[in-house]
Amino acid sequence: MHPKSYATPGLMLVSPVTTWRNLKHQPTWLAAFIGQCIVVILGSLASYQPVRELSEAAGMIQGNEVGFAHSVYGTILLALALVCLTNLAVIIAISVCLPVLGIRPKLLKILVLASYSLLPFALGGAIGQLLLAFTRVLTNDPGRAIALIIKPFPAGLASVLPDAFPSLSFPWFVTSYIDAFSVWALVCLILGARYYLELSRTRVMWFGLGQVLILIITLTVFWQGTQGLRASLAY
Question: Is residue 5 assigned to a domain?
C-alpha cells in the first residue's frame, strides 16, 4: 500500500513531477478544475470595468447598454464557459493522441491530466486580465480592442514585439497564445504523460508533438472565428 499523499493545484505550479506522482495514488480532477474556475473568475471580475470601457471606446457597445452579456453575472458565466471549453478541447486532444499511441486510459485519468495541466494557462490568463485592469488601455480600433480583451498582455513574442504583427492576424495569434504560460501548461501535460500515465520516452515525445499540432489547428479555427467577428463589427 502506498503512503497517503496529497496533490493540490498549487503544488502543480511549483513541483509538477511530484504532483503527478502523487496523483497516481490519489487521482482527482475536481480540485484543479475548481482552481481554474476561481482564478479565471477573479481575473474576469478584476478586468470587468476596464473591458467595458475598452468596448465602449472601440464602439463595440453603447455606454447605456446593460444587457446580461455585459453584466457581472454574464462575465462570471462567460468565464465558467471558457474554462469548460478549454478543458473540453484539451480532453479531446488527449483522447485523440493516446489511442494513436496504443494507449486507452480511463476517462478519470484523462480528466486529471487535462485539469491539472491547464492550471498554468488559467493563471496566465488571469494575470493578463489583472494587468489590463491596472493599465486601463483604451483604443478606438475594434480589432485591437478584441485582441486586448481575448488575450491581454501575452507573455510571449507578441508583447516583446507589439507592432510586429497586426492585431488578430494569424501570426499574432501564434505569438500571443504560444507564450510562457501555454508552454508551461504543455510541459506539465508532457510530464503528466511521463509520470502519471507512465508512458515511455518515445511515446511521450510523439504525444507532445501531437499536442503541439492540435494546438496549432485549434488556434487556426479560433483565428477564423475572430475574423468573422471583426468583419461583423466593421460592417
Answer: no
Cell of 86: 478549454
Q: What is the pLDDT of residue 2?
A: 43
Kindly state whether residue 6 falls inside one of the protein's structural domains. Answer: no
- Give pLDDT tens digits for 113-167: 999 999 999 999 899 888 888 887 777 677 777 777 777 777 776 666 656 677 7
Structural domain of 75: 15-234
pTM across the whole model = 0.85
What kind and span of H or E run contains 108?
helix 107-117
Mean pLDDT, rounded, of the chain = 83
Long-range contacts of 209-214 (CB under 8 A, 24+ apart): 210/93, 210/96, 210/97, 210/100, 211/93, 211/94, 211/97, 211/186, 212/186, 214/93, 214/96, 214/97
Q: Which three cell numbers stand for residue 182?
A: 501555454
Q: Given a cut of 60, is residue 229 above it in pLDDT? A: no
Query: How many domains is the chain built from?
Result: 1
Residue 209 counted as domain residue: yes
Sign of the Cα pseudo-torsion (208, 184, 119, 17, in order): positive
21: exposed, middle or buried (C-beta count within 10 Å: 0-12, 13-18, 19+)? middle
3 pLDDT above the threshold of 60:
no
> Is residue 227, in this structure, part of any structural domain at all?
yes
Residues present in the chain in total: 235
Rounded average pLDDT over 59-65: 62
Would you say 172 and 153 are in contact if contact means Cβ atoms under 8 Å apart? no
Contact between 167 and 141 under an 8 Å Cβ cutoff? The reply is: yes
